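Input protein
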Amino acid sequence: MTPGVPSSPAAGGVVGLRRGACRSLPALVFILAAPALGSDSTPAAAGPMETAAETDVAAAIARGLAWIERHPATLQDGGLIDIVDEGVAFLVLRNLSRRLGDRSRFAVALRARLTALEQLPAFEAWVYAPHKTLIDHYHLVLTAHLMQFAGQPSAFQPIIVQQAQRALLATPRASPTVRLTIAAFLDYLHEAPAARVDGLLASSLVAQVARAGLPALPLPAQGTEDAWSMTTLLLSALVHEVIALTDFGRRPPSPWLAERRAALRPSLVDAVHWARAERNLDLACELVMTARFLGAPLHAELHGLKDELIASQQPDGDWGASPTTSWAGPCRPASVSTTRAALTGSPGWHGYSTSSRIVRSISG
């Protein structure tokens, strides 16, 4: 299953819902948010080994945030989609932070990032571009949702919504994942989607995997490139459906989703093991967070992945390029995979505060 098709030039030439190798902020979202990812309860007091582990995590976080501060997404370095992705990362950080001060700082960072985005002529050109793919509409509706959540609805929201509604009506046989995610974000904007979420659930990947499980995952180093790509796209689509249906973890799973949680969990465990075996840490982190948003945290997988992420971090704070998906066009050398890797599970989250320098760097 292919979540999307090439986007318009205004969007930076993205392929599918995945950002591939060009990401950095969502890698730090996982290592920073470990208590929230791995548990639904308050952690017990840390012993000596846990304290040492927290020191390693804190150092990884500091290096990752420093990399982001030096490499904020811009039109020239990452493009519009990467800027939107950084907004998503700040939203997730804001949602998962347990300290009010941290939540407030990430909310400020999110507003600053989105204000700068809406003021870009390139963003307005993207909104009014005459020929857009369904993936373009997905990202634009997502952006409108982020702006509304941040308390500053986009001046372009009416045209974004109108175009997305028309696209849903015109593409009844397009990717179920893309249609479902667009409809979900329209719902959050209090706009009745042209294709109702309830009507799209039956054809969703979540429904298929809950009913029949995942198809056989290609063995490491033995599958063909096509099999590897299709598996990666399928798992990415599953991630995006859950993320949209839970609004990045802000909303508890609906009764429909909760009924399928137990059936989905074994597939998520298998998928995390497969992604780690393929050295696709970016995807592995996304799958761990997906399980958390479902209310089924993967404790053992989170612990092992956190250690692997810390060990694989580069000296400058980056995690290198993710092998997930690549495309022609502007690309940050190691982007949100840096953040996504960094953020998978931090016991040191309680002691973390966002520096004012980070907020200034992302606000331009």
About this structure: DSSP finds 18 helices and no strands in the chain. Residues 4 and 16 are 4 Å apart (CA to CA).
